[in-house]
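Margin note: ligand = adenosine-5'-diphosphate.
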Amino acid sequence: MLNLKDPSLLKQQCYIDGQWVAADSGATFEVTNPATGETLARVPRMGEAETRRAIEAAERAWPAWRAKTAKERATVLRKWYELILENQDDLAVLLTAEQGKPLAESRGEVVYGASFFEWFAEEGKRIYGETIPSPWPDRRLLAIRQPIGVAAAVTPWNFPNAMITRKVGPALAAGCPMVLKPASQTPLSALALAELAARAGVPAGVFSVVTGSAKEIGAELCANPIVRKLSFTGSTEIGRELMAACAKDIKKVSLELGGNAPFIVFDDADLDAAVEGAIVSKYRNAGQTCVCANRIYVQSGVYDAFADKLATAVAKLKIGNGLEPGVTQGPMIDMKAVEKVEEHIADAVAKGGQVIAGGRRHALGHSFFEPTIVTGVTCEMKVAREETFGPLAPLFRFDSEQEVIEQANDTEYGLAAYFFSRDLGRAFRVAEALEYGMVGVNSGLISTEVAPFGGVKQSGLGREGSRHGIEDYLEIKYICLAGL
Ligand code: ADP
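Resulting structure:
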């Protein structure tokens, strides 16, 4: 079993209204380790009734929480932040066990996740208003920003810690209580965060975690009129459904959805830096991030050299159980994810692509998959249109800057894009021409709590992190003082 310094961080109940509780029916579901198939825990399978109670508890907790000063709320968030850092070893072990990513990546995620509490604890103090020059001599006009109310979050399995904190941090800092439904593959990180919330002094009802049926919990979060705001990270398909459900009572929504990131290597790039960027952007978390490079475009002059260097770098990746030292790529989340990668490889090969590295399930079994490179990829192949969400690097060849910009933008997605070039003019031209919410120039890793994360087109609505991340939890109120 798991070797935790503090075994009480492994929770098998939900946290609602400050209490650890089972499902009304007593039903549970298994949480398994994708690297071994072993059962790690059983957590409650909750549904509408329990979700409603969590929402009602949040509504009761709201007046006192919003009445606190920003500094008082910051003190609680800061304490929670410190507790996460103090327990980062255990949180990383739990995260790797339920999700599969290498321990070093889990530690990185826990620290990154905690940074949203530190950042938003401070941003909460800067929710400034405005005084507006009045068009009337006897009136004064003000605009203030206030918490929107009870907020809900639905989060995915690929970042079981950080996708939660980047929603809960701004919500709580702004004065909004939050009800969270974590992904069913990875509820243990969420429940451990709830235990630390209790220790940090987050009042009952201000943060609740409900695990179980996505359909039932999601339906209640969208339909309950007490909830004024939903923040979702996951697939575009489910995001669209939730947005439609939230339309009924005009809930505010933030959506962080799928991507189909282009990664462009120009002839004038530093090829070693580009290879390093491609490795981190493509193979981190076994290719299962929404900002992973999905389509790698390489200019003709450096195509073969880049492919060779990438293959050499890929050969150095160490595949295995993420809890073992030195492992750089863990298993994929499940067999369905493996099948999608296989489908994309088979489709590319059938249409003329060549596998120059990997290409198959890994000898370790379970959902381990070899890091793969396919060359000779064209825009008729599935990898050009769909998000692979796995360790497959498809290399497209291109000739001109204009051509690659058109191809890169030819998608309904618009989350992250990357390119490598040492030409300053090109750096500005291409960064401005790419229709994406985020662009990495000469880097494959761009996420930080201080910068706005989010997409355009069908990749989402709203921004997380940065000074903009708190906006989604605020409403503007205009006050007109007349008769002066
Ligand atoms: P992924 O491909 O990352 O699993 P999903 O969009 O399927 O993306 O899931 C992201 C989150 O949305 C998870 O917490 C999942 O349980 C939840 N989810 C899936 N289907 C629904 C639904 N119909 N209503 C509400 N939440 C859902």
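The mean pLDDT is 98.
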